Write the structure tokens for this entry.
Amino acid sequence: MPTANVLKKFNWQPIKLKSKEGLALLNGTQFMSSYFVFCLLKAQKLSQIADLIGALSLEAYDGRPEPFHHLIQQIRPHPGQIQTALNFRTLLDGSQIIKQEKKTYTRPLLISLHTSGAWRK
């Protein structure tokens, strides 16, 4: 829709900018927007790497996969927690180590791994 039609529809008057005011409105906007997207993509990648490290650590320390069961995640349905649990289940799917009978009791490190999804809300 042309600008003139919008101004007429809402009975607005066009803004008359003075020297450099138009530039001030635009200056840096593209950079800030692109940097935000860059940081967002970087954060998503770091979150994926954190899930990978967490799943590998859970397997290495003889952890249990039960805390990542999809029904357990519905008790506190935070989207990030659900996604982390899904990532753990996907990464650990088919692992012979994680399926083995657990011979040790839960250690503090395993507790932190079992609750890793709760950190990501």
User: Anything to note?
Assistant: The CA atoms of residues 52 and 91 lie 7 Å apart. The radius of gyration is 25 Å.
